[in-house]
Amino acid sequence: MATEVLMPRQGQSVESCIIIGWKVKEGDVVTAGQALCEVETDKATFEVEAPAAGTVLGIFYPADADVEVLKVIAAIGESGEDISAMRPADAAPAAPAVEEKKPEAAAPAPKKEVPKPVALQPAADGAEYDIIIIGAGPGGYEMAEKAGHHGKRVLLIEKAFLGGVCLNWGCIPTKTLLNSAKHYVHAKEAPEFGVNVGDVSFDLKKVMSWKQEVIETLRGGIAGQMKRSKVTVLNGEAKLLGSRKVEVDGTVYEGTHVVIATGGSPFVPPIPGADQPHVMTSKEILSIEAMPKSLVVIGGGVIGIEFASFFSSLGVKVDIIEMLDEIIPFMDRGQAKRFRAALKGKVDFNLGCRVTAIDGHDVKYVDKKGEEKSINTDVVLMSVGRAPNLTGMGFEEAGLDFDRRGIKTDEQMRTNLPNVFAIGDVTGKSQLAHSATRMGEVALNTILGRPDRFRMNAIPWAVYSMPEIAGCGLTEDQAKEAGFEVETASLPLMMSGRFLAENGKKGPGQVMVVKDAETDVLLGVHMFGAYSSEIIWGAAAMIEAELRIADIQEIVFPHPTVGEVIRSTMFQF
Known about the structure:
The chain has 573 residues and is an alpha/beta fold. The protein has four domains: 3-77, CATH 2.40.50.100; 125-266 and 385-456, FAD/NAD(P)-binding domain (3-Layer(bba) Sandwich); 269-383, FAD/NAD(P)-binding domain (3-Layer(bba) Sandwich); 460-571, FAD/NAD-linked reductase, C-terminal dimerisation domain (Enolase-like, domain 1), CATH 3.30.390.30. It is built from 14 helices and 32 strands. The strands form eight sheets. Strands 9, 10, 11, 12, 13, 14 and 27 form a seven-stranded mixed sheet that branches. The protein has a five-stranded parallel sheet with strand order 16-23-17-18-19. Strands 28-29-32-31-30 form a five-stranded antiparallel sheet. The longest helix has 25 residues, at 204-228.
């Protein structure tokens, strides 16, 4: 009896998948587990495998078809079997019977036909598009997807790859590398937990290959999102011509609204010797082909700490040179000191120091006492911050109000130009991918006539180092500077039975809570230790809702979890 090939379910929220293309044709003999076709959801692409061996008797849907999950898309069985009862009512017409032929030279594969763009109605005011978005990073592509879902005609312009810096040279590739490093560290530490794994090694080439596979899979997912939401994607460099017009490669496009989401780029200060091949930014070091023996990181911010954590965990000698007196300026000072202590022996921190030159492989700097020093190293990572992408896109000529810090906007992300919005890193408000996404939501809601505004007080942040760091709201110092009468409480993550079981007695970690002593309202939650990045969203919700400590004490947290230490800390007041 013939076997049905079903469109698999990929998560509870996925109702259908688009068939990208078939890898087999009717009449082909296949083996169990062989890839039959490639499909995509709004988040990822994957292959549908043959559930059994046999002949492909029927392919019921063509490439580009959007098919409900658990629907029969093909049939496999013995040649000549009747599969008419399996064919769905909306399936493509059955192909003519396949005649057996003698083997012959394979013909060149036909070119895949490019689907024509979906015809949409022009914007209500006659413009070609309702919204033109410049930049396909998290802010741009997620806004485009949501706008398309609301029936808006959207043009998304990207000069490089979908996903922007975050997906291609930032958030995702760094987390992929860090995850591989964590597997390596956990394997080396496994005997402490009763697991013997033998010799452990790190294959940088395979790690880089996996990183690229992750990137390309997610790029395909974003392309699927755009296709599903009928967003027109245009590859090229954009130039703003005014409130409604954008030029790309000599062609002018008109939109009722224009959204600038051009992001930012690594800032390289004018340090003599910074142009040498072994001096890299976060973009170049993500494609490094050989593991260095030593690394100097110039800058103790988020990017610098993450790369220092990655390389040091693999045995690379790492030095951080930071001009300020402490790492990560928005981190609680006390926790920053404890975090540095957790990396003692792995990373050397040189705080309050200013780099003066990079002379060959010698990084020269002046310490806080004014003494000149130098560190010899294989590779230098320049991670002193990022600058908004503002030049070469016609902003000044169009009359857009901006300075070196970014494009100026109000709480609805509107600029000084009518119908022009700006979101993400280019605004200089917050250099976080999720901030860009939220800004895009605010801009879209404003366009749709829905009241909304971007609020900075409850934006969580995280550093995906080992151990992780995360926070939301005000630190103790920030709260005092803002005029609050402050009370704080803290507990070690070791208070959690799960944390102890999974990280051991040496596992560093702490939760610190900041509250307004007069009103009992939660002002901030700051933590470091394993899982911090996965927990901090709960603190963001509490701060956004302006909950009092007494309110949070009534919330039931699951046990045993690491997150329940936040609740336990609330009872320390």
